[in-house]
Structures are given as C-alpha cells and as structure tokens.
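Quick question: who can interpret this fold?

. . .
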Amino acid sequence: MVYYDFHIHSALSPCGDIDMTPNNIVNMAALIGLDAIAVSDHNTVGNVGAVVKAGEKAGVTVIPAMEVETAEEIHVLTLYPSLESAEYAGNEVYKHLPEIKNRSDIFGEQLLMDENDEVIGREEKLLISSTSLSVNMLFDLVKESGGLFIPAHVDRHSYSVLTNLGFIPDDLPIAWIEISKRVTDLDAYFNSRPELRGYRVLRNSDAHYLMDISEREASLSSSVEDIFDFRRKR
C-alpha cells in the first residue's frame, strides 16, 4: 500500500501559508507516514524541483504536479512522470496566464524557494488567475507532456468541472477524478452522481497549511507509477 497526498500547495501559491516550505512539507509528510506526495501550486511548477530534492533527503516520493485553472475557471490537478515533463507543461501554462501583477498585500506572497527553504525569488505574475487554455487545450498539453489530467475537487461548488460545465466532456478520455475529503460517504455521493462511478478516485487534502496535509488514510493498492497506467482508462 502506498499512502499519499497529491494536492498540496507550497508558499509559491499566494493562498499557501508561508510555512509551506519544501522541507516543512516533506518532513510533515514523513512524520505523518505518507509514502508519496505532490506539490501542486496554482499554474506553476516553480517550487517542484526544490520539493523533489527535499523529498529525496526525507525518504518521501514527490511527484511533480501543478493545479491549472482553465479558461472555464475549472481547476485541474495535473501529475507528471518527471520533473522535465512538468517543467515543459509549466512553461506552456505560464505563457497562457494574463499579464496581471501580484499584489502581495491582497493575495499573499508568491515565494520561490530552494531545497534548503531559502527564498530565491518572488513570482511577480499573479498565479491565481484563469489561463487562456480551454479544458481540451489543457488536456492536449498534459497528454503531450506524458502527464495525467485529473479534474480537481469535482464535488465542490466552485472551480469544479461539474459545477461550471455540469458534466465531464465525453471527449476527455480520463481515468481519474479527485473528490475532496469533505465527502465522507463516497457511496452516497456516487448515488447522487452515478455517471462518476466509472472513474478511479483520488482523495487529497488541497492543503494550504501544514496541519491540513492528509493523515495516513488514502492509499494506492500498488505502486505510485500505477496512476500513470494509461491502459486503464475507465
């Protein structure tokens, strides 16, 4: 069994707490007993490399990731098999962000850090904006990068594909969806949304604070690489 939390924000996300540093995140995950995590900041992978290096020291597997907001204001969790593929996708996503400067006094700091938790810069462009990428355009980019496209927190009333579109488009051949931990009874939820029963489910924290990182609850039955098995579509 692999215990995981694949939706964690670092201090690079303006809504992420300043204590969400690479080492704090991986050390908290190790303390909890998680085997694998992913730091998925808003529309950027700027801190992922540092977290990967910190994870290697702490003995925690770190999957490169990013939470992207599409033109439809839908949040999508994207996971990648390598740092290089994540950086490629991240560079493309960044090109599609509007030229809006961050106001740290309003939105919060956007801190770039190294593997020693040293601040090495600040992202000037506001990251919590919708990109100009449509859902389908983002899907194609993630597929091109070898990554995994996972509609995020589909049960929520904001920034979810079910709220904003009302359905998951049939032309998106996805295997996974994310259902937030606030849904305590999955069977009851699936009874209310029976069209979702064919998808595999991730349960993540969407943590913006260290205390919110998932306990040792959600697990994969095999290896972390299992989530990238594209032969298992539905």
Notes: The first helix runs from residue 22 to 32. DSSP finds six helices and eleven strands in the chain. Helices lie at 22-32, 48-58, 83-95, 135-144, 161-164, 186-192.
